[in-house]
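Methods — Computational structure assignment.
A single polypeptide chain was analysed. Its primary sequence is given first, followed by the predicted tertiary structure written as structure tokens.
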Amino acid sequence: MQKMSNQQFVNLAKIVSDTTRLKILQILAKNGSLCACKILDELHISQGTLSHHMQVLTAAKLVSCRKDGRWRHYRLLPETLCLMATFIRDICSVSSPILLDECSCDEDAHK
């Protein structure tokens, strides 16, 4: 599995930190492939606003788009989210050489 750079993670974190885009990802994770009209029904936003968010998510490879006539169907691409999760997991798994007892900050904060 490829590694994600710090800059790639930051860029993706900015994308998924938008509440509407995060909700779209949650909707797609729960429902699988959905027509844009169904996503609109869930979010109560304009079609133009949805289109903007879907372009951002598609460009980031978080979502795929399949055109069916005049409708678009979207599907979550979990691979990019898994790369983000691995990035965070790698940070969490690093053992810190500084123990709490050796911390020089206010001791009252640790009680």
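Note: The beta strands are 34-35, 63-68, 71-76.
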